[in-house]
Amino acid sequence: MVGNTYRQRPLSSSSTLMTACWLTVGRLDRHGATHNSHTTVEIQRRKAAIPARVARGWAVAIAIRHAAVTDPPENMKGTCVHAFAAKIKPMITGMTSSPEQATRQALDALIADGDTPGLQYVFASADEALLAHHGGLANPGAHLPINDCTTFNAYSVTKTFTAAAVLQLVEQGRIELDRPIAQYCDRWPQSGAATVRQTLLHTAGFANPNPLPWVHLIDERAAFDRVRFVEDLMRTEGRPISKPGERYAYSNIGYLLLGELIERASGQPFVQYVLQHLIAPLHLCDGETLAFDIPRPQAHARGALKRFGWLNLVLGFVVDRDRLVDDKAGRWVQFRNHHVNGDAYGGLIANAHGLARYLQALLAHDDFLSPVSRALLFTTEPGPGPARSLGWFMGRLDDEPWYAHAGGGAGYYSEVRVYPRLGRASVVMFNRAGIRDEHILDRLDRFLIAGKR
């Protein structure tokens, strides 16, 4: 509580930080002077103006800020103040650094804090990469660093390619969005009245069983029977479990069926269609990868998950652990290189520069996609569930609209995002497990978006 002479105002980000500092480390004054004469004068000036309790918070905050942006004095090293200063250093320096420096510091902090072995990040306009960053280890066990060319499993980011392929075929008159998908894929009439549009929007009513076991190792690639995998899965999971259009339920099964739809409508295997009509027109340069095979296994990041995390504890219940796990490396459990069984919902292999080139093409007003298809990709559709378009999810960052998709699973996590109004796009890729949309690009893009605006 505050006295009657002190008017309470909404907390700014800086005052919130200072209050948090006071609550975290307690009374600084008891431990002696840990600040220089400048900060002492500042503290005493503020003590004269505000209650003592608030002043102590300011004192701690000033001392921590001093420790975060300069070398701390000897009597502060090893204290809780010093430890907390190290934690908030990216935030503090982000207030004074350029947007590019602040973004790089935030990325490096993810590695330093043990959030991931390694990462890649690209922020781009329609014409060029404005910021590219990579760091950490591609293979923790062998201590091999990540570089710009390192590739990752992109998992569900693949769904954006599947959606774009469907819309291309809609424009050609080969698919109608509001026709039942069963009219095209008559091998699976059990999909019932679910339409193409509903399947793209995850409102067709299909189930979403655990997909983590649906992988095969890189040395099993040649023997993998994709047709049998699809047949077996559609036979057991291809019937909607709720009435189409009634509710939102994310489903890999639905996108597996869309892959079969693309094959029926185009007369080409799904992978061949995407490579020919979506990836080849990008004219990828050296160091840019979008593929459905791991082009260079030695340059592919080894997927990992935290050794002492809950996911590692339950891993043996959801996958064949002996087959998929390679070894332990420090704090990480490391996976063998593998492919997703269903190309249309998660089979893409990529790096950040390859995905950035794809996002740039979506931003550019050229013939990669027609204006009609581009509008459908980046126009929010009505319906139950989170805001989304045909293949993308919609949100806002500091009131700037974005369309995005995440891709996560055993060993890898990625996010791609497009800011249509700003003409900007971003990609981040990690070689660590992720099983939900973490909105990490909210934290990383904020500096650069603010600089643009």
Structure characterization notes:
This protein is of the alpha+beta class. β2 and β3 (144-145) form a beta hairpin. It is built from 16 helices and 15 strands. Residues 1-43 have low confidence and may be disordered. The chain has helices spanning 13-25, 37-49, 52-69, 80-96, 99-112, 158-171, 196-200, 226-237, 252-266, 270-279, 310-318, 321-324, 343-346, 352-363, 371-377, 440-452; strands spanning 118-125, 129-139, 144-145, 152-155, 215-217, 290-291, 304-306, 325-329, 332-335, 338-340, 348-350, 393-397, 400-408, 413-419, 424-430. α5 (99-112) packs antiparallel against α16 (440-452). The strands form four sheets. It has a seven-stranded antiparallel beta sheet with strand order 3-2-1-15-14-13-12, with helices on both faces. Strands 4-11-6 form a three-stranded antiparallel beta sheet. Helices cover 40% and strands 17% of the residues.
Which helices and strands appear, and what pairs or packs with what?
Layout lengths: L12 H13 L11 H13 L2 H18 L10 H17 L2 H14 L5 E8 L3 E11 L4 E2 L6 E4 L2 H14 L24 H5 L14 E3 L8 H12 L14 H15 L3 H10 L10 E2 L12 E3 L3 H9 L2 H4 E5 L2 E4 L2 E3 L2 H4 L1 E3 L1 H12 L7 H7 L15 E5 L2 E9 L4 E7 L4 E7 L9 H13 L1
Antiparallel strand pairs: 1-2, 1-15, 2-3, 4-11, 5-10, 6-11, 7-9, 8-9, 12-13, 13-14, 14-15
Name its key features.
3-stranded antiparallel β-sheet, alpha+beta, 453 residues, 16 helices
Average of pLDDT: 84
As an assembly, this protein is single chain
Per DSSP, what share of the residues sits in E-state strands of 2 or more residues?
Answer: 15-25%
Radius of gyration: 25 Å
Distance between the termini: 38 Å
